[in-house]
């Protein structure tokens, strides 16, 4: 791998993702419906370098090929807003974490257990994401639980309970339910509301 532990989380995750893209090639599946690794790499380049992008722009980027796209990603994100201290991990670290898992899980690779820094950013982001999810299932509440005993409540008690490692909770809350190793329990009505 091309990463070092001295790099910020978002930069390490970016480089690790590029290594995986290079290993798998342009036609490997992802959890993003209808997208291959080439589509996902083009999306990441466009996201960082264009304020608005369209399908024609995605097609143009994809035509450059995966090696060109990974080279551009390896070069790093523009300074504003992607590398602003304090925001870089929330904005870009989370994006690269989720898309890295999109590729890993779609290709049968196990969850990473050697990166506690990923759990830290995933827990922070999952807690923010859960606010929106909890609003959607009102009047039911939502509780997040980790194996380490961390909990966070949203709304009334006795609702849906989502349990898993922070990365798994983040994947579940970001729409990757089938791939997330998380358990949903609690009030049947709340569970049904969350699953809809």
UniProtKB/TrEMBL annotation:
InterPro entries: DinB/YfiT-like, Maleyloyr_isom. One of its GO terms (molecular function) is isomerase activity. Keywords: Isomerase. It comes from the Bacteria. This is Maleylpyruvate isomerase family mycothiol-dependent enzyme. It comes from Glycomyces niveus. The lineage of its organism: Bacteria, Bacillati, Actinomycetota, Actinomycetes, Glycomycetales.
């Amino acid at each position: 791998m091309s990463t070092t532990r001295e790099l910020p989380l978002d930069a390490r995750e970016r480089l690790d993702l590029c290594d995986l893209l290079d290993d798998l090639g342009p036609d490997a599946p992802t959890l993003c419906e209808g997208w291959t690794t080439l589509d996902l790499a083009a999306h990441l380049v466009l996201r960082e370098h264009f304020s608005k992008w369209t399908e024609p722009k995605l097609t143009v980027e994809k035509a450059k090929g995966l090696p060109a796209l990974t080279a551009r990603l390896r070069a790093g994100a523009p300074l504003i807003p992607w590398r602003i201290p304090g925001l870089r991990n929330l904005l870009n670290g989370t994006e690269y974490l989720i898309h890295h898992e999109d590729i890993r899980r779609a290709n049968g690779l196990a969850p990473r257990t050697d990166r506690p820094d990923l759990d830290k950013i995933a827990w922070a982001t999952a807690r923010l994401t859960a606010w929106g999810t909890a609003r959607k299932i009102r009047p039911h509440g939502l509780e997040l639980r980790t194996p380490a005993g961390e909990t966070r409540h949203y709304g009334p008690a006795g609702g849906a309970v989502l349990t898993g490692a922070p990365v798994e909770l983040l994947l579940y809350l970001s729409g990757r339910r089938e791939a997330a190793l998380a358990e949903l329990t609690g009030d049947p009505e709340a569970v049904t509301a969350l699953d809809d």
